[in-house]
């Protein structure tokens, strides 16, 4: 799959340094957006890697009341379920001042069906973000060891969905709601945050121009700007940059 997207890789020590750098990059992106527009709309990744970064981000002195925080994807579970990405954000980014003031927009997982939840989230995104497709200012994505990002898993239909902004996916045994490639690719700035040796092959594939998007759906995300890849040394071990 042709992919003209450029990637800028930044290697950082694992742990504290990676979390701090990720928080810095997101905060800078928010700051720059708010210098140009009255509101900043971001979509954040779920999973385990970014939680420490979000905790640091929540301490950054930004006008959080002007920041709309969306989720790139969400597991179809109740809001108080340990698997909920929104719950992870509430106990990290929004667990302290001033991050508590951010405008979190969780996926409505209390609706009757995932399809209804996906449609409602897409409607909310259209209300919050101008443009067609709606333009997010910044998207933080994770990378699975199987090459997925958000809930765009290999071997499922979700990565190839292009006729809507949000769709229903399936991953790790859970139904999920995920932003689609057209919406993610319309973002002004995309950052991948990747940690651990278990992700090294997936990251090598993400950056390999000959890699197929079928095997590595994360390669489908192709914004018009350079993608930032923030990786610790273990995740970047197979890169020859
Ligand atoms: O809801 C999710 O699970 C995430 O959004 C998912 O795309 C995640 O970013 C990757 O699976 C990496 O997850 P880890 O950071 O836990 O390795």
Number of helices: 6
End-to-end Cα distance = 22 Å
Integer tally of domains:
1
Helix content: 25-40%
Would you report the number of β strands?
10
Give the neighbour order of strands across the main sheet: 1-10-9-6-2-3-5
Strand % is 15-25%
SS-derived structural category: alpha/beta
Unreliably modeled segments: none
CATH architecture: 3-Layer(aba) Sandwich
Which fold name corresponds to the CATH topology? Rossmann fold
Order of helices and strands: EHEHEEHEHEEEHEHE
Bound molecules: 6-phosphogluconic acid
Please provide a written account of the structure.
This protein is 25% helix and 20% strand. The mean pLDDT is 97. The two termini are 22 Å apart. It has helices at 16-36, 51-57, 85-90, 114-128, 181-185, 200-206, and strands at residues 7-12, 40-44, 67-71, 73-75, 103-104, 138-141, 166-171, 174-179, 190-194, 227-232. The chain has a single domain (25-214), classed as Rossmann fold (3-Layer(aba) Sandwich). Helix 6 (200-206) links the parallel strand 9 (190-194) and strand 10 (227-232). The chain contains 6 helices and 10 strands. It is of the alpha/beta class. A 7-stranded parallel β-sheet has the order 1-10-9-6-2-3-5, with helices on one face. The chain binds 6-phosphogluconic acid. Residues 45-49, 72-73, 85, 142, 144, 148-150 line the site of 6-phosphogluconic acid. 6-phosphogluconic acid is lined by residues 45-49, 72-73, 85, 142, 144, 148-150.
């Amino acid at each position: 799959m042709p992919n003209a997207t450029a990637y800028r890789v930044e290697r950082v020590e694992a742990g504290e340094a990676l979390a701090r750098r990720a928080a810095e990059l997101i905060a800078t992106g928010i700051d720059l957006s708010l210098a140009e527009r009255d509101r900043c709309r971001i979509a954040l990744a779920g999973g385990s890697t970014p939680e420490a970064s979000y905790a640091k981000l929540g301490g950054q002195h930004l006008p959080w009341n002007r920041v709309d925080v969306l989720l790139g994807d969400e597991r179809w579970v109740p809001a108080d379920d340990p698997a909920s990405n929104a719950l992870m954000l509430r106990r990290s980014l929004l667990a302290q001042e001033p991050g508590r003031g951010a405008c979190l927009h969780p996926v409505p997982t209390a609706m009757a069906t995932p399809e209804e939840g996906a449609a409602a989230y897409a409607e909310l995104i259209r209300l919050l973000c101008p443009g067609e497709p709606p333009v997010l200012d910044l998207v933080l994505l994770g990378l699975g060891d199987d090459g997925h990002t958000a809930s765009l898993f290999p071997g499922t239909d979700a990565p190839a969905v292009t006729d809507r902004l949000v769709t229903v996916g399936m991953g790790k045994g859970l139904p999920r709601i995920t932003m689609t490639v057209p919406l993610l690719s319309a973002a002004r700035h995309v950052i991948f945050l990747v940690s651990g040796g278990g992700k090294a092959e997936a990251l090598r594939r993400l950056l390999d121009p000959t890699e197929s998007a079928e095997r590595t759906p994360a390669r489908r995300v192709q914004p018009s700007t350079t993608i930032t890849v923030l990786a610790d040394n273990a995740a970047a071990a197979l890169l020859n940059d």
